[in-house]
Amino acid sequence: MERRKSLAIFGVILKGSHSTIGILSGHPRLPRSVLHCQCRKAHVPAEDPSLTSIVDTPAKLISTKRKHTTLGVLALALIPFTAFCLGTWQVQRLDWKTKLIAKFEDRLVRPPLPLPPRIDPDAVPEFDYRRVYATGHFRHDKEMLIGPRLHDGNDGFLVITPLERGKGASTILINRGWISKEKQYQQDRSPSALPDGQVTVAGLLRSPWKKNFFTPVNKPEDGKFYFPDVEQMAKASGSDPVWIEETMRMLSHCLISPYLTACSAKFARVL
After folding, report:
1. Is 1 inside a domain boundary?
2. Strands (E), the chain
3. What is the pLDDT of residues 108-143, one digit of tens each?
């Protein structure tokens, strides 16, 4: 009997000590029934129906960059196509230029041909850079200057003089070379630069040039030419649209021009 009383008292003391410890720690001891209810109501993640496992739905890679548009894809696709077209064009241009140089070199090494009395202007491109020669008299009264033209840093003009070849033959245009601005007017030149006798001009037959966008418009009514328009200059001087770049002339005097490097009693070479 005494033993039972002692155990009861000891149990009361233990309960009191637990309550005291809970109160001192700031967490009062809750009854076992309350603790049991809290444990049953605790959230279990595996039992949550809204939970999605990473095993069932693997992660997806999402780019933070802006998505490519159709226009951008097309622009990228055009880059290799454009490079291929440009490369093909360069190869074709190289082949064309190589053949053109070979053709002109072949014409330059051939002996000069006498220029026929009448020339078809439409056939001139087929004989471009062909060496020819013609005999006649210079018409200095119909001389034309093209310029300004620079040569070795000096300002000047190209002298274009019609060559009248006599009865039954056409008059043609001769590019006699470059003169400085100080020799623009004929009275300022040496008399040897204006031969009045019969001369034989050797040179290169050239086809008409094409005017570029930046060249000013010629003013033939004022005698001002900025571009060698063969048709226009031939009409202004009463000549045929045939242009010859003079390289050699049979005469007894020299043309006053910086291009002259040698002179003799028979030939004056214009380089």
Report:
1. no
2. 113-114, 130-138, 144-151, 154-164, 172-180, 199-206, 243-250, 260-263, 267-270
3. 888 888 999 998 988 888 888 899 999 999 999 999
Amino acid in position 228: P
Q: Is 163 helix (H, G, I), strand (E, B) or coil?
A: strand
243 close to 228: Cβ distance less than 8 angstroms? yes
Could you tell me which of 170, 162, 160, 176 has the C-alpha nearest to residue 120? 170
Total-model pTM: 0.60
Q: Which sign does the torsion angle of CA 174, 176, 181, 185 carry?
A: negative
Cis peptide before 116 (omega within 30 of 0): no
Residue bearing tokens 């933070």:
64
Give backbone dihedrals phi and psi of 51, rounded to 5 degrees, phi first: -75, 135
Residue 28 falls inside a structural domain: no
Distances (CA, A) of 192 to 19, 169, 248, 258: 139, 26, 15, 14
Instruction: Report the candidate in 95, 162, 155 with the shortest Cα–Cα distance to residue 134.
Output: 162
Q: Provide the domain count of the chain.
A: 1
Structure tokens at 49: 């129906």
Domain that holds residue 238: 113-270
Domain assignment present for 145:
yes
Does some domain include residue 55?
no
